[in-house]
Amino acid sequence: MAAIVEKPRNGPRSWQEHDLLNREAPRYTSYPSAHHFKPLSPDIHADWLRGLSSGGSIGLYIHIPYCEQMCWFCGCNTQVTRRYEAVSAYVDQLVAEIAHVSRRIAMRPYVHSLHFGGGSPGLLQARDMELLFDVLRDHFVFLADAEISIELDPRRVTPDMARVYAGLGFNRVSLGLQDTDPQVQTAINRVQPMPMVRACVDALREAGIKALGLDLIYGLPFQDEASFGATLADALSLHPDRLSGFSYAHVPWARKHQRLIDATALPDAAHKLILFERMTETLSTAGYTPVGIDHFARAEDGLAVALRHRRLRRNFMGYTDQPNDRLLAFGASAISEFDEGLAQNISQSATYQRLIREEGLATARGWAYREDDGVRRAVIAELMCYFEADIGDILVRHGMPFNYLDAELERLKPLESLGVVECHRRVVRLTSPLKMLIRNVCAVFDRYMQQPDGQARYSRVA
User: Is the pTM of this model over 0.85?
Assistant: First the structure.
């Protein structure tokens, strides 16, 4: 892969590039984007489960759609609850769903990864976490080197729970740091002083969990280059293996709680680019390898290794070094991925629980792969992971005519004229240092972006 290295430029070069940054496009954690999913019957989902073969391992995902407090920047499917009884009742239906799904599979699949996301999976009390692990180990065979990870809120981690996580086999934790400036934390309703975060990190490491990732967000209210620089210094002082630097997506039409954020305090696209460039420069100088559009990893970390060996993948959790895309996902709104397509559970927690009790599956929508989805998925995946794609080679691998995507290559010419990409012998390569612009490039190859339904809205590219 050709390296994309250029000294930060403090913003877009032209109004045309500024326009590209303000356009909406999918984040391409799947193809097609979940915005385009259609109703999918539980019977189709069940057929895909029965079709799982013993060849190859799978990933597992558990979604916990509850938080004790709503962070106003959040784009996840979650709700606030003060009653743990509601969480415990939900866990009961997770256990039932895992059992129902497993009965539809002809063998006990090998598992290469298990991830708990949310919401706040750290809400789960020890007894419920242990219950979930018992049922998962009853129905699946975990590989010896399986990655078992969880997203945690630093405000909720105690030394006792850190030991519980380690005892259950968790070997990677992702902490939501976001920003360490008190004004920014207040503006997003996420106050967590650095001493609290440091105590959380110490507790996890003392318990034996060494692999640590930190999630940062740029583009939050009141962020400026100086304050974000201090956040980056705070993050580096914790010596994480990985960092993610996500662009804040302000989508109040989809997440009503984001209306509580003062939109006038949000940085515009040009200022967000300054923050992005500061982050890239700071973390690269500190020895972290940029991975994709928003991840950074130490050279010995699995993500950096996968990038070097072109084994990097992108899925609903972001960038990953896992060996394949097959994923069984449990819980409200969770999306499973099969060779045949994508299946998503109903998003509403109460409805999800009722459907599991009554029917065993809570499938609501998804996508059965069709037509040329496979070749377009491959192009978009390579662009998102490596910022380049050999269109001719991909077409040959998928048995498609060599000129099949020539119309898309023609539509790239305006981006070529702006210096965003170059196309040579059907190899498309991003040439702009603004890596988020790859989403605009991917959109050119997205059949469903070219056929808008009038309802899909995405986050801005920057």
Answer: yes
